[in-house]
Design brief:
The protein contains nine helices and eleven strands. By secondary structure, it is an alpha/beta fold. It has a single domain (7-244), classed as Spore Coat Polysaccharide Biosynthesis Protein SpsA, Chain A.
Length: 250
């Protein structure tokens, strides 16, 4: 009987953000945002452990205050680097490590299962991520919403903040995909993750481009959950998230 593979979910969280001070601990519906993310991914089937990788004691205390686990890291330019450090400090090996962004308070637990499936089925695939179809042209044009273009084989061709593909022929049937901030890595790949930020990564401020620039492939899974991304990047996004949370409970 094959050994059941182990899955670690890590939520990278930093204290400072460009638009919202201590965004991770922003109140949404009576709970800090990080708690919504932690509790939702904890409902995913098959996971072995959930942890927060953070850069500030205040976040660690908040996580432990609602019964979660957290580990302190140094300063990093992206969540992937933070998880690499946290994983090395953990001293425990996992087959697959999942990164769920701390600004995804409406993440669907099933998406964790969707992003890990390709890696569990094929250990040669180093990394996977999730996408959904854009809900509107305005969302597609918004630079905080990251676009992904993928090949017929389902692997990423590129990620960008620009509205791509350019629809010169709107009747061609090209679909517009939004990247969702969930990644999964094979344990072996995270241990050899490229340590140096790449030129396109720095230009676009998109960490996943480091993987493509170094010649690795990223499987892109279109979620079947009906999810529409509501990441919290600006004060306006935060207010929208609060309204959606209130509506969901109303």
């Amino acid at each position: 009987m094959a050994k059941k593979k182990t899955i670690l979910v890590m939520i990278p969280a930093r204290f400072n953000s460009e638009e919202i001070f201590c965004k991770t601990l922003a109140d949404i519906g009576g709970k800090p945002m990080i708690q919504h993310v932690y509790e939702r991914v904890g409902k995913a089937a098959g996971i072995s452990r959930v942890m927060v990788a953070c850069d500030h004691e205040q976040i660690k205390q908040a996580v432990e205050g609602f019964g979660g686990q957290a580990i302190i890291t140094g300063k990093h330019i992206c969540g992937s680097d933070r998880i690499v450090e946290a994983y090395s400090k953990l001293g425990q090996k996992f087959d697959v490590i999942v990164d769920v962004q701390a600004d995804e308070p409406f993440v669907e637990p099933r998406m964790v299962e969707e992003v890990t499936r390709p890696l569990l089925d094929d250990p040669r695939i180093p990394m996977a991520t999730v996408c959904c179809e854009f809900g509107s042209e305005a969302d597609w044009m918004y630079p905080f919403n990251v676009k992904v273009v993928k090949g017929i084989d389902g692997f990423a061709l590129y990620f960008t903040r620009s509205p791509v593909p350019y629809l010169r022929n709107k009747e061609a049937g090209a679909r517009l995909f939004q990247h969702v901030g969930i990644y999964a890595w094979q344990g072996w790949f995270l241990e050899k993750y490229p340590p140096t930020p790449s030129p396109l990564e720095l230009a676009e401020s998109l960490e996943q481009l480091r993987v493509l620039e170094n010649g690795y492939k990223i499987k892109v899974v279109e979620t079947a959950t009906g999810y529409r991304k509501v990441a919290v990047n600006t004060p306006e996004d935060l207010e929208r998230a609060r309204q959606i949370m209130a509506g969901n409970r109303g």
